[in-house]
Amino acid sequence: MPLTVLAPEEWEPRALAHAERARAYTEPYLRRRAQQRKHPVEDFLFTYYTQKPAQLLRWHPGAHTVLTGPAAVERAGWKFYRPLTVREQQQLNLNDDDGAVTVDLAAFLAARREAVDFARIILSGTAARPAQLGCFGLHEWAMAYKSEDNAIRHEYLNLRLGSSGTDEVVETNRIRCTHFDAFRFYAPQAVPLNELQPTRTTQRTLEQPGCLHANMDLYKWAYKLVPALPSELVMDCFELAWRIRIMDMKASPYDLAEWGYPPIAIETQAGRADYVRAQREFSAESQLKRAQLSKYINQLQPGNQPGVGR
Predict the structure, then answer these.
(1) Tally of domains within the chain
(2) Is residue 309 a part of any domain in this protein?
(3) Which of 15, 18, 160, 238 fits a 20 to 30 Å CA distance from 142?
């Protein structure tokens, strides 16, 4: 894997295209935040996950890529970037005027080794397991269980079936959520109703590719690899998570009709069939992205470092 050198006319349009792609999501969110307005679906990727809008807007070529030109020089001061050494410039037939910079992979791995290793374990383990379908998004219902006694996450939304109807759905269905970061938000009374008791420790053995939240988390594993990962792949994972979030909330107990989201009525046979069909499609799409992320992680490991070439 030789280093790839990109001239300004090659990488600057990519950076602009990425920023335009990301702004379609960041600008509406920032306007709502300034106006202190909430959106139950479209705020999620910005409020639950830790990557900030400004970070999403910033384009990175990924590891093993050299950027040249005046605009590239600014990146020498960015975190996990470095200018090329004199020897590297000579090997690539570049000089100081070319302003060549690249991702400082050694510094990135020194600082993020634990995160990279954990992402590798989660991604490879999840990819190897069969998808479990038919959970029907009951994790969201379990979070709203006994709402008359507990504060619910979206207190400004109405429950589509009311409190008693929501409780009945929880009590009359099998709940087997495998995802710790969904399970940890359950209402206290719903915790013993889940057939599994996921923990952070068991996450690496329970994650499976049918889980909507595990598939949304591909975005999390992607941005944790920034800047060693190309931003185009980060945005692919972001947009996948965005679409999954829409389905997740349409299948939730909340009434989102006024927000433009008709329900997936998982309390009905037809609704459950719709849910499984969409869940299967998202699982297949997510497995492809999971494989791409794993491929990049494997290229970051010691022993897989590139030589210098044109």
Answers:
(1) 1
(2) no
(3) 238
